[in-house]
Amino acid sequence: MEKKRNAGLETWLMHIFLVGTALAVLYPIFMMVMSGFKTNAEIFGAPFALPKSFNFDNYIVIWNTTDVPRYLLNSTIVTLISVFVLLITGTMAAYAISRYRFRGSIMVSLFFLAGLMLPLRLAIIPLFVQLKAMGLVDNLLGLIFIYTAMSLPSTVFILTGFLRALPGELEDSARMDGASELRIMVQIMVPLITPAMVIAGIYNAVPIWNDFFFPLIFIQTPENKTLAQGLTSFFGEYSVNFGVLYAGLTLAALPLVVVFIVQSKRFIAGMTAGAIK
Amino acid sequence: MANIELRDVNKQFGDVKVIKDVNLAVEDNEFVVFVGPSGCGKSTLLRLIAGLEDLTTGEIHIDGERIDHLAPASRGLAMVFQSYALYPHFTVAQNMGYALRVAREDKASIDKKVYEAAEILQLTEYLDRKPKALSGGQRQRVAIGRAIVRNPKVFLFDEPLSNLDAKLRVAMRIELTKLHRALNATMIYVTHDQIEAMTMADKIVVLRDGIVEQIGAPLDLYNTPDNRFVAGFIGSPAMNFFKGKVSGVHEGGAEITLSDGTLINFPGKNGTLSVGDNVEFGVRPEHFSIEPGADGSLRGEVYAVERLGGETYIYLSSDSQKEIVVHATGDHRVAVGDRVEIGFTIAQSYLFGPDGQSVR
Amino acid sequence: MQTADYARAKRARARNLKLWLAFLLAPPAFILIVFVFLPMASAVLYSLYDWDGLVRKEFVGLDNFADILFNPNKNSILFNAFWNNVKVFTSLMVIQNGLALVLALLLARNPRGYRFYQVVFFVPVILSTVIIGFQWKLFLNPVFGLVNKALHYAGLSDWALPWLGLPETALPAMLLVNSWHWFGFPTLVFLAAIHRIPKDFIEAARLDGASEWRIAREIIWPLMAPAVTIIVVLTFIGSFNWFEIPYIMNGLEGSPQGSTDMLGLLFYRTAFGSVSAGGSDFGAGSALAVLMFIFIFIFSVIATKYLTSREVELS
Ligand SMILES: Nc1ncnc2c1ncn2[C@@H]1O[C@H](COP(=O)(O)OP(=O)(O)OP(=O)(O)O)[C@@H](O)[C@H]1O
Ligand SMILES: [Mg+2]
C-alpha cells in the first residue's frame, strides 16, 4: 500500500514538472504572439490580458513601412539556394566517397570530415578580405557560398552513412542493365536516400535560416539583409512601438514554426542527426 | 546461342590473388555450375564474366569475340543476383523494363516484352506492385524476369536460390531447369550447394581458392574425382577418408596399410606412388555395406543411428578414425554401442596420393 | 583488333571512371577549399602580420599574440571575457543540460503527452537566437517588461530589477534565456540515447527490485555516455563561441561593466573595431581567433578522449 501511494506521488510530481516546463516554453511564446496584436497602451496597461481586438494593425505597419518583407524574401532565397546547392554538391561528394574504391578515397573523406572540426566564424577576417576581393561582400551570393561550404562536411557525413548502407548489387544490377554511372546515381541510388537528404537538409537549413553572424559582417545595405539580421535594424527603428516589435518577432518566427509543426518528426530527427550515432 | 571461353584469367584485389589462371570453355546452351566453398572466388569469376570487375590478366571471349574490354551491358549478358537487387522504388514492370528503357526502346515494345516475360513467370498480376509487396519467391521470379526481358546470350546467376526456404528452393530448381530448356540459352550458375550443382548442371566447375580443381559432368565428378578435394566436396554426406601408408608397390598395383593396420590391395593402381608415401583411402558412405566386403572391411563402434525409413545413416568411430559415416538403404538392425564390420569394394573406393591427386 | 586496342579500350574505361569521380568531387571540394580551408589557413597567416585596415603591412612574428596575452592594458579584458565564458560553460552544463537530463529521464518513462512534450520542448530550438534574444530583452525591460510586471502583480515589486542592467544579474539572466532556447536539444539527444539502451537491461533491473533512481544512476547513465560526450563537447564549443545572445541583449561591449563580455564579442570588437577597442585590427583579431581555435580544439579532443574512455561498450 505504502509503496503504491508513493509511486502515485512520484507520477504526479513528474506530470507537474513536465507540464510546468511545457508552460514555461509555451507561455512566453503565447505572450509574444498576443502582444503582437496589442497597442502600446494595452501592453503597458494590461500586459497579461488578451488583446482587445485581434486586428492586424501592427502587421500592416510592418508590411507597409518596414523592410521586414524584404528580409523574409532574402532569407528564403538564401536558405533555399544554399540548401539546394548543398544537397547537390554534398550528394556528389558523398556518392563518390561511398560508392567507389579509388586511390586516395580515405584522404578525400578525411578532407571533407576535417571541415566538421573547423569553426568558420573564427576565420571571418580572411573570409571577409577574400569575399571583398571577389566582390561578394554585401551580396547574397557570398552568404550562399559560405553557408554551402560550412554545411558541406555535415551533409557529406550524414549522406555517406546512408549511401554506404545501400546494397552494391543494386548498382551492379543497374550496370548490367546498361545504365551509365550518372544514371545509376540519379535514377537508382539517390532516390533511395531521399529521407537522408531531408534530414541533412533540415539539419543545415535551420541554422542557415536563423544565422545572424555572417550577415552581420557581410551584408550592409538594407535590401540585402536577411531576416535574423534585419530584425536588429527593425528593432532600432521601432524601439518605442512594442506592439509592432512583438508582431515583427511573431512574423519572423512564423515560417519555421509552421513548417516545424507540420514536420516535427523529421525536424527532430534532422536537427539531432549530428549528435545521435 | 553462345559459347564462352576464359583464357588464363587472373584477378587480384590489391595483393590478394583471388582467381588464378582459370581456363574454361562453356558450350552453347550449356548449363554450367560453379561450386566451391565460401570465399573460393565463384562470385568473383562470375562478376569478371559479367564485366562488373576488371580482369587483372587474361581474356574472355563470347562466340569467338573478345569481350573483356567491353562495358557489362555491351556483352550481351544478364545477371540474377543473390539479393535479387530489385529497384525498390520501381514497380515490377518498371524493374523488368529498365534495361530496355535505358536502351531507349519504344514504350510499346517494352510493354510487350515485359508482359511476355511476366507470362512465362506467372507474374502478370503483380506488374504494378513494388518489390516490397511481393513474397520471396515472387521477387526471385521478377529478378529472373528482368534477365529474360533483355533476351541475353548468356544468363548469369549468383546463388539465386539461397534466400528461399527449402521447399521453394526445390521448386525453383526445377523451374530454372525448365526455363533453361525453354529459352535455349547458355547459363552460368554459382552456388555452394552441391545438390543444386548435381541436379541442374550439364557441367560443373569445382573451384577452390581461386583455382579450378575439376571440370566435368556431375556424375563424372562423382565417379571419377580428380583429387581429394573434389571427392570430398561432391556427394552428400561427404566421402569418408582414411589415412594410410604405401606398404608395397608392384607391377600393376599398390598395397596400402591404413592406420588401424588394415591392408588393402589396389590392383592396377599405383600412379607414381613409392613405398612409405602418405596416402588417403576414400569410400563414399553409400558404398559401404554392413557386412564384410569382398575386397576388405573396416570395424567401428556405432555411436549414432539416424533412421529415415527408406534409408539409414550409421555413424561409427574407431581408435584410428573419429567418424565413419555409412549410408544404407532400408532399415538396419544396428544399435548404438554395437561393434560392426563394414565392407567396401575396390571398384567403389578411391586412393589419393601425397599431393591429394587421385591415384589411377 | 590488336591486343593493344583491347588494352586501350580498357584504359579508356578506367579513364572515364576517373573523370566521373573528378566531376563528382571537384565542385564540393572547390567550395570547401575556397570558403573554409583557405580562410582558416589564412587566419594563421594574418595573425603574423601587422595590419592597417584592409591592408597587410609588415611581418611581425608572434607580436600580435604577445600583445593580446601580455599587454597589461589588454589582457585584463581578455581574461575577464575568458572567465565569463568559463562561467557560461559551467552554468549551462548545470542548468541547461541538467534540466535536459531530468526531462529525458522523465520522458523515457513514456508519460502521457510524450509526443506533445517532445514537440513543445523543441520549438525554441528551431527559433532564431535573434528572435529569442529580442523577445526576452522585451520581457526583461525594467519598466515595460512582462517579467517585472508579473512581479508587481504578484506583490513582489521589490524584486523587480533592471535585470539586464545590473552586473550581478545580467549574465544569469542571459544564461536562463540561453537555456530556455536550447534545453530541448540535449533533452532529445539524451532521450534518443536512452531509447537505444536495450529494454531488457532496464526491465531485468526492475524485476530485481531496483528503484527508479538506482536504475537511472547505475544503468541508464553509464549506457548513455556517448550522448553525454557529444553534448558536453557541443556545449563547450557553443559556450566559447557564445556571441548572439550577449550581443543582442546587451550589445558589443559586454555591459554592464564587462559582466557579459565574451571572447566572441572581444574578437568582433578587435577585428572590426568598436567604441572601446578603436579601429579594426585584423592582426590582433586573427591572433585571437587562432588562440580560441587552438583552445577549443585541444579541449574538445581531450574531453572526447576522456569521456569516451568511460563509455561502456554494449555488446
Ligand atoms: N572487392 C573486393 N576486394 C577485396 N577482396 C575481395 C573483393 N571481393 C571479393 N574479395 C575476396 O575474394 C575472395 C573471393 O570472394 P567471392 O565473393 O568471389 O567468393 P565466393 O566464392 O562467391 O564466396 P561465397 O560463397 O561466400 O559467396 C574472398 O576471399 C573475398 O574476401
Ligand atoms: Mg558469392
Write the layout of secondary structure elements.
The complex is a heterotrimer of chains A (277), B (360) and C (315).
Chain A: H1 2-35, H2 40-45, H3 57-65, H4 68-99, H5 105-114, H6 124-133, H7 140-164, H8 168-176, H9 181-189, H10 194-210, H11 213-218, H12 227-237, H13 242-262, H14 264-271
Helix pairs in contact in A: 1-13, 3-13, 4-7, 4-10, 4-12, 7-10, 8-9, 10-14, 12-13, 13-14
Chain B: E1 4-13, E2 16-26, E3 31-35, H1 42-50, E4 57-62, E5 65-66, E6 77-80, H2 92-102, H3 107-120, H4 136-149, E7 154-158, H5 166-183, E8 186-190, H6 194-200, E9 203-208, E10 211-216, H7 218-223, H8 228-233, E11 240-250, E12 253-258, E13 263-267, E14 278-283, E15 296-307, E16 311-317, E17 324-329, E18 339-344, E19 350-352
Parallel strand pairs in B: 3-8, 3-9, 6-7, 7-8
Antiparallel strand pairs in B: 1-2, 1-4, 4-5, 9-10, 11-12, 11-14, 12-13, 14-19, 15-16, 15-18, 16-17
Helix pairs in contact in B: 2-3, 2-4, 3-4
Chain C: H1 3-46, E1 49-52, E2 55-59, H2 63-70, H3 72-107, H4 114-126, H5 129-139, H6 146-153, H7 167-182, H8 184-196, H9 199-207, H10 212-223, H11 225-240, H12 244-250, H13 263-272, H14 282-309
Antiparallel strand pairs in C: 1-2
The structure holds adenosine-5'-triphosphate and magnesium ion.
Adenosine-5'-triphosphate (ATP) binds next to helix 1 of chain B.
Rounded to an integer, what's the Rg of chain C over CA atoms? 26 Å
Low-confidence runs of chain A: 1-5
Determine the CATH superfamily of the largest domain in chain C.
Answer: MetI-like
**So, the CATH homologous superfamily of the domain at 67-231 in chain A?**
MetI-like
Number of alpha- plus pi-helical segments of chain A: 14
| Structural class by sheet pairing and helices of chain C | mainly alpha
In the CATH hierarchy, the third-tier topology of the domain at 67-231 in chain A is known as MetI-like fold
Briefly note the structural class of the backbone of chain A: mainly alpha
The fold-level CATH name of the largest domain in chain C is MetI-like fold
CATH architecture of the largest domain in chain C: Orthogonal Bundle
What ligands can be seen in this structure? adenosine-5'-triphosphate, magnesium ion
The tally of helices of chain C reads 14
CATH architecture descriptor text of the domain at 67-231 in chain A:
Orthogonal Bundle
Q: Please bin the fraction of helical residues of chain A.
A: over 70%
- Counting structural domains of chain C, the number is 2
